[in-house]
Design a protein that fits this description.
214 residues, alpha+beta, 5 strands, globular, Nitroreductase-like
Length: 214
């Protein structure tokens, strides 16, 4: 079953869900496969379709992957720096919610019914920006399509990257050939506790939109 959402509603209410993930309700494999089917309709560089989606539902492997993620989140320097002083006050409440959500995931990640690790063939370690852009541009649109498809089916997702702090260990746990395939994220997927989500506060358009020059 899909939610009755317009395209604008879908795009404006697909939130990073942490506290409202239903940890008790299994996600049918069929729904996850439908989300991947839609994800791979996304564009990719030169239409090479180098994407892969590793979906982890086995409890023992979920627990092992969650341990790698937790170690990454707790590693020194893993957190993003504080925002500039002039925007810090406006973002404090929002970041408090983010940190609270991260703490919740830290405690419960292994309980999330499905953990999705999107990957792309080819590594960008020390690569020039042009190559990096082509590689990331060949996986990120597909992942966002996956997240939108999940939202339309009443599923919540959240983009996280703790597994990338020790990507080699994450690759070992999942059997990913590290030298050939790069992980992009770790996305928890679960039904949500309620489906009503609203557009989030965002920086005003006139601060991000530029006409003809920056």
């Amino acid at each position: 079953m899909t939610l009755d959402l317009s395209s604008d509603q879908l795009l404006s209410t697909t939130r990073a869900v942490r506290h409202r993930l239903d940890l008790t309700r299994p996600v049918p494999r069929r729904l996850l496969e439908e989300c991947v089917d839609l994800a791979v309709q996304a564009p990719s560089g030169r239409n090479r379709q180098r994407w892969h989606f590793v979906i982890v539902t086995d409890p023992a492997r979920r627990a092992a992957l969650a341990d790698v993620w937790r170690a990454g989140v707790a590693a020194p320097g893993a957190s993003e720096p504080l925002p500039p002083r002039d925007v810090r006050r406006a973002s404090v409440a929002r970041m408090d919610r983010v940190y609270s959500g991260t703490a919740h995931l830290y405690e419960h990640l292994h309980e999330v019914p499905a953990l999705v690790v999107p990957c792309v063939e080819g590594r960008t370690d020390r690569a020039p920006v042009l190559r990096q852009a082509g590689t990331w541009g060949s996986i990120l649109p597909a992942v966002w399509s996956f997240m939108l498809a999940a939202r339309a089916r009443g599923l919540g997702t959240c983009w996280t990257t703790g597994n990338l702090v020790d990507e080699r260990e994450s690759a070992r746990v999942l059997g990913i050939p590290y030298d050939e395939v790069m992980q992009a994220a770790l996305i928890p997927v679960a039904y949500t506790l309620g489906t009503g989500f609203r557009p989030a506060p965002r920086i005003p358009r006139d601060r991000v939109l530029h006409w003809d020059r920056f």
